[in-house]
Design brief:
Elements (H helix, E strand, L loop, with lengths): L3 E7 L4 H17 L4 E7 L24 H11 L4 E6 L7 H9 L1 H4 L7 E3 L3 E3 L14 E4 L2 E5 L48 E2 L4 E2 L35 E7 L6 H10 L7 E7 L23 E6 L8 H7 L8 E4 L10 H11 L10 E6 L4 E6 L4 H13 L6 E3 L8 E4 L5 E3 L16 H16 L4
Parallel strand pairs: 1-2, 1-3, 10-11, 10-13, 11-12, 13-16
Antiparallel strand pairs: 3-7, 4-7, 5-6, 8-9, 14-15, 17-18
Helix pairs in contact: 7-9
Length: 462
Amino acid sequence: MLPIFYISYHYTQDHNRSRLFKLKYQNLSKVFPEKLHCLNVYESSSDPKSFKGNGIPALKDNMITDAHNEVIKRATKLGYNEVLIIEDKTTFINQTEFKNFIINFKTSIPNPNWTILFLGGYIENHELPSKNQTWVKGKSRSHFAYVVNLKNINTKNINTKNINTKNINNLNEDLGQYLYNLDNTYYHHPFLVIPQYYDYKKGLMGVTAKGLSMAQIEESSDLSELKLKMDFVEQDTLPSVTLLTVLDNSRTWWPMISMNLNNLDYSTKKMEWIILDLSLNPLDLIEDLLPKKRGKEGGWHLKYIKNSDWNGLDFIDLVEKLKDQITHSYVVELDPKTFYPTFSIYSRIKTAIKYPDYGYFGSTEIQMYNIPKDCTYIIGNNESLEFLEGTRLVCLERNIKNKMRIPGQFVSRMMTYVDKNDQVMYKGMDKFPDYLEHESFFSDLILIIDDLRKEYQKRGAI
C-alpha cells in the first residue's frame, strides 16, 4: 500500500479551516490507519503555537515553506518508491473505493515510466502551448491529491527557492517537469476526487454525491429520478443576450476569447458584446486586438470600456456600474480564461427560459478521470444555491431589474495538446457514469455530454 503524506495549510485566525482539517485528518486516519504522515504548513505571519491542539500531529514544529519538496525529501529518506500526497482541500466521494484504488495502485498503473499522477484538482490560468509543447502549465485553483514516483524525480538538484506551497505548478524543471510530465496513456487523466459538502454548524461532512455544492434545479423531489430534458428551441425565437467579458491584464488570453466568440452557436444578430477592461497597465489593454468585422454575417454590436478605477470590484458591482450600457435582459458572463462549447450560450439561455424565476444559472466544471473504471466524470465546484439566491437579492436591492445573469466558466476544459496545424485541441469526455444522469445537473451538462459523445463517436474514439 502507498505511504500517504497529508499536507495541512494553516492561516492566522482561520478556525473554520482548522476544524475542517482536523475532521478530514481523523477520517483519513480511519481509512488509512498505517503509513499516514502529516505535514503542517504555516502562513508566514502565523504562530505555529496558535494551532496547538488542533488534533493534527506535525512531523516538526517549525514553519515549513516548501511542503512538496519536504515531502519528497522525507519520503526518499524513508525509502519509499511511490508516495501519495493529499492536500488539505482534497476530500473523497467514496473513501472505500479510493482506498481500494490506492491498495491496487501498481496493478492499475502498469507502466513504470511516469512521474506524477493527479488524483484530482482544478486547472486555471493555462498558458497557451507553443509549437514544441505537448503539455500545459497551469495554476491550481483548488489543492490536489496526487501520486509521485520518486524513482523518476531528481531530488539532488532541487531549487527550493522556486517552490511555492500554495502553487505546485511553480516546482522547477529538476523535478522532471513535475506537472504534466505523465505517461501518454494517462495524460491529463486524473482519478476522481470530488469535494464533499461540509456543514460548519453541525460539524458534518457529506459522503455521497447528493451532498455536492451544485447550483441545482430539481425537476422532482425524488432524488433518484432527477434529470433535465430541455425542449428544442428555434434560433429565431431565442431572446437577445448581452455577453459581458471582464478583463484584468488578460491580453495574452485574446486567442481564447476570440475563438470562443467565433465558435458560439447563437445568432449574432441577437448578441451584443461588452468588454470591460480593468487592466492597470496600458500595455495589457486589448483595444487594438478587437476585430474590425463584428462577428459573422449580421454581426454583433461591440462596446469596449476601459476603467481601471473599477479594478477590485466583484462581478455584481460591475453589472450595476454597467446597467445603463447593458441593452438586453440576459447577461452572460463570457470568462476570458475558459473554453466554451459552441452550444454553451444556447443551452444556458434555454435553461433560463424554462426557469425564469431563478435569475442565475451556471457552474464551474471539473473533468476527472477514474483510471480503474476507465470513465471520465464532470463535476461542479461552483456557486451554491445560497450564493446565487443572495446575489439575486442584492441585484433586486440595487435595482438591477430584469437582468438575468448567467455566470461564466460554465464548463472549463483542460488543454491537452497541439495538433499538426498548431490548433489548440481540447480533450472532452469519452465516458461517464450513469448515476450522473440521475443527478439534478443543468441541461448544459446533458447537452455537453451528448455532444461530446457524438463527436467522439465520429472520431472513432468510442
